Amino acid sequence: MAIPDGRVRSYVYEFFVDRQRAPDASEIAAALTISLEDVIETFTRLAADRVLVLDAHRTGVLMAEPFSAVETRFKVESDGHTWWANCAWDALGIAAALHADVEIQSSCPDCDRPLSLSVIAGRVTGDQSVIHLAVPAARWWDDIVFT
Amino acid sequence: MPRGEVLNLEQGWQLAYAWYHDRLDPAWQRWPPEEAQRILNDVGLTSEFWQLGL
Fold first, then answer.
1. ipTM of this model?
2. B26 in contact with chain A, both atoms CB, cutoff 8 A
């Protein structure tokens, strides 16, 4: 039986928060008692709506922004848990989404210098780095992985 | 690569908070483009770079 797409979306996010990784389609199917085909079809609709970003096979989650399913340059730690963010904006976004204090470890994409940031009690502190966005807003979704 | 735009940490945090603070709400839905543009505008990101091309 089909369930609302939003329930699948919500489960993906719950899983990211609890397990620090993306659920695979079979885990979603089992948890929500729907078929694997229903999960894949829901993935396709959520990706079309830019709610999830799918992997190259279109059968798994690559990004549930701000979370990344794969290791990136942006490591976010909170309360003993580690997540990966898609970019610097998303690393801060994990703190915003969790409403939690976080430590962010990254490195300069230009010179590889390690960078460390903290969000504590809703305030960001750390290396006086900057966030560089290369792609204009109107073209973010032309290639969201590059963006 | 185009030069793009640079945000300082405080601007980055303001943007991240505005964009993501309610993302874990089970009822969250992708905003219409006008709402996304409003979020950008509200944190002061109003230059051509930040226009979503509605």
1. 0.92
2. yes
